[in-house]
Specification:
It is a single chain. By secondary structure, this protein is an all-alpha fold. It has one domain: MetI-like fold (Orthogonal Bundle). It is built from 13 helices and no strands. The chain starts with a helix and ends with a helix.
Amino acid sequence: MSTAIRFVRRGISGFVLRRVLLGLLTLLLVSVIVFAATQALPSDPARAILGRTATPESLAALRKQLNLTGSIPGQYAHWLKGFVTGDFGNSLAARGEPVTQVLGKRLENSAFLVLIAGEVSIPLSILLGVLAARRRDGPFDHTSSLLMLALAALPEFVVGIALVVLFGTTVFHWLPAVSLIPPEDTPFQHLKALILPVATLVLAVSPYIARIMRASMVEVLESDFVEMARLKGMPERHVLWRHAVPNAVAPAIQVIALNLAYLAGGIVVVEFVFGYPGIGSALVDAVANRDLPVVQALAILIAGVYVALNLMADVATILVSPRLRTSLR
């Protein structure tokens, strides 16, 4: 038994190592694309900092200070070295303020919003998928499937605007239409302002998880081992939650990871709709102001979230699936 466990651990460790190396390679390629794309933009960081009245001498001195006078590969190597060591550079729009200070509070706000949306959407989606599969071809199944299809077809900004009209402005006035949080406050102090953005994100990602969970549950409920558990006289509740759900949740893990990664990137639109001070509005402002260091940092951070979530999803899928654990021995 201990030998088998060592084999499984060794197989999982090798798989994780390969996935980490592949993730690092992916991030390296993303960094090349992001740096090349931002370098191709028609903007001069030195002039953006000093303004139009800057003299040629001051522009040349600042370009040298910002390492903009060397070759493109040299600039990329310098930028990548700083990024690896935690130095994301200085914001052009904030007059030389470090990017880490510009984004620090916004990252905290966005992480809190994504965390709350994930904690609500994942259990809710799994529960809806399980109930729809358990009541297959019934009224609940048909109604929930139709509702999930309709929500999946709607862009998140449409859902957000509809919620604002319904609960914040025209119909009811129960919730604030915008989610403004002062820089000195934390999101915990303005939970009421987070209800509409969180609801928008939940409605944007839940349909996909619920649908894949339903399909996986339908397949598992028709399997032989579930039928055998029923023939043994096991209560239906135990059959459903102890046998069917753990085996059906493995395919849903990948979809959950993709949707959480979508929350990290798709939150841009939702934050812009509600005026929420997170990385979404920061990215919009940085693009409008040609603040290249902030754009580069946010692009790499979002890509890193995608890679990390996919890695965790792959590992979690193996841990909950006996068939995949056996294949790694």
